[in-house]
Specification:
Blueprint (H helix, E strand, L loop, with lengths): L2 E6 L18 E4 L5 H11 L3 E3 L11 E4 L2 E4 L2 E2 L9 E2 L4 E4 L2 E6 L2 E2 L7 E2 L1 H22 L5 E4 L19 H9 L3 E4 L12 E3 L2 E5 L2 E6 L2
Parallel strand pairs: 1-2, 2-3, 3-7, 9-12, 10-11, 12-13, 13-15
Antiparallel strand pairs: 1-16, 4-5, 5-6, 8-9, 14-15
Helix pairs in contact: 2-3
């Protein structure tokens, strides 16, 4: 039963100290909009892997590849701006600490910043993610455990203002992949309780701040 430290959007300064070493988890999960140094520190201090998706306030990580231990972009060695050792799940299906993640980072497009997508663009990305998950399932029979996103599904925990609208395509993605969990950030509760939402067999949870979660 893997246990994870799940973080998003809001840095907890208490965790950005050696005190975090008292936390016992198997991995760190990041749902976006956190300093990459923070994610790298958490994973390093806890000596566990980190899987994440970028948020709309994070640097653009597209176009980077790994070759021979080097980070490459446009055919040239380039320092990767992401968290050291972190696994970027955006648009990918990855297995980490016994869990299968499918990731879709970013938010609805509201200006010219990085990691922002129109509804149509994110729907195209989601279809590609579904194809990859199906291919992996045909290979080994395993389903996706966690759909890791930055933004929530449309009308399921999002807000009415344009920057905080959710993605409509996540409804179909949930229907097809049927993950046990959808974890998202982006929507700051500002102290208000945020209940989980359940769609079919998928539990949707806002993880802004930090949580300790066990996955059965």
């Amino acid at each position: 039963m893997p246990k994870a430290l799940v973080v998003s959007d809001e840095v907890d300064e208490r965790l950005w100290t050696d005190a975090v070493r008292t936390v016992s988890v198997d991995l760190v999960i990041g749902a976006g909009d956190l300093p990459y140094d923070y994610l790298a520190f958490l994973a390093g201090a806890l000596d566990v892997p980190c899987v994440f998706v970028p948020g709309n306030h994070d640097p653009d990580l597209s176009g980077y590849t790994r070759y021979g231990g080097l980070s490459m972009k446009d055919g040239f060695p380039t320092p990767w701006p992401g968290p050291a050792g972190g696994i970027n799940a955006d648009g990918r299906v990855v297995d980490v600490a016994g869990l299968r993640f499918a990731g879709l980072g970013g938010s609805i497009r509201y200006n010219d910043g990085p990691n922002q997508w129109t509804q149509r663009q994110q729907a195209r990305r989601a279809r590609g993610l579904v194809r990859r998950a199906k291919w992996r399932r045909r290979r080994d029979g395993r389903d996706v455990d966690v759909l890791l996103t930055h933004s929530p599904p449309l009308d399921l925990g999002d807000r009415a203002d344009p920057p905080h609208r959710g993605f409509a395509c996540l409804h179909r993605t949930i229907d097809v992949l049927r993950p046990k969990w959808l974890l998202h950030g982006h929507i700051h509760p500002h102290g208000e309780p945020v209940p989980d939402r359940v769609v079919g067999q998928t539990r949707i949870r806002n993880v802004v701040g930090h949580r300790i979660m066990e996955f059965s």
